Amino acid sequence: MTHGNPKADEPAALLERRGAVALITLNRPRALNAVNAALSAAVGEALEEVAADPELHVIVVTGAGRAFCAGMDLKAAAADEPVMAPGHEDWGFAGLVNHYIAKPVIAAVNGFALGGGTEIALACDLVVADENAQFGLPEVRRGLFAAAGGVLRLPRQLPKKIALEMALTGRPLDAAEAARWGLVNRVAPAGTSVEAALELAETVAEGAPLALQATKRLIHRSDAFGSDWEPAMWDENEREWQAVFASEDAREGALAFAEKRAPAWRGR
Ligand SMILES: CCCCCCCCCCCCC[C@H](O)CC(=O)SCCNC(=O)CCNC(=O)[C@H](O)C(C)(C)COP(=O)(O)OP(=O)(O)OC[C@H]1O[C@@H](n2cnc3c(N)ncnc32)[C@H](O)[C@@H]1OP(=O)(O)O
Question: What is 185-207 written as a DSSP string?
Fold first, then answer.
């Protein structure tokens, strides 16, 4: 993966295959991977390619250079240029990852994750952060608010007073504090967050694809059910269980255990 300073005509996102793991790199390092229409389109295309590839079961997203993502391209916004590709305006990566990508997604936060960068991390299922990474929602200081999932997801993932302090003051959290509040699963030594995220992705990829996707869907859906969540949630749980239990992989998982061998998932 190129972490260097790519030439101007380099794609705004890179997709690499590592076995069953897809590595997507936001690739505008000169602008700290700020999101403009080109990057939005490139990341969207990469995610859609991965979603359609049955050989890819887990996704890692990271940034080229010293930032993960510095959020919306403020210079594009100042120049009245589009900051999201056509068709991505309403949900963008943040929405896409959580509600539109069934496969587990891991953020390898290799540096600054500000504004939309923190929102991408919030939308991912797991987060591995470089010990020098920074998370923050400075939007109110830019005349905006964290509309790409920030204000909606932060209070569900951190204590509400911490979420309010971050979103109302723009105060950044370093990786250690983010991990303390549960925004980060693992803190990796400086410069090793991508390697650590790929290792975690390989562990996740040992699970059966359909079971991983049902697990992700139901855990995220459990947020959506209110206090009377029991009946509706158990109905949805039962539908997912019937589909997964009837899959070839459910039979393969049991057979592999009985025959003391590693399972060979088929994703069906
Ligand atoms: C379907 C797929 C979609 C794909 C992804 C979509 C995800 C959703 C993203 C959209 C989100 C919209 C909603 C969001 O909530 C709104 C925002 O994100 S508002 C922006 C919030 N971000 C910021 O305010 C951070 C701004 N940057 C900084 O504060 C600093 O740059 C820094 C990060 C603290 C680093 O400081 P320094 O180390 O001093 O470095 P520089 O400041 O010199 O930066 C280097 C270089 O990068 C340029 N740059 C940095 N950030 C941005 C930016 N956000 N937009 C444009 N350009 C940026 C900076 O200008 C420098 O350029 P140079 O001057 O060298 O030409």
Answer: SEEE-TT-HHHHHHHHHHHHTTS
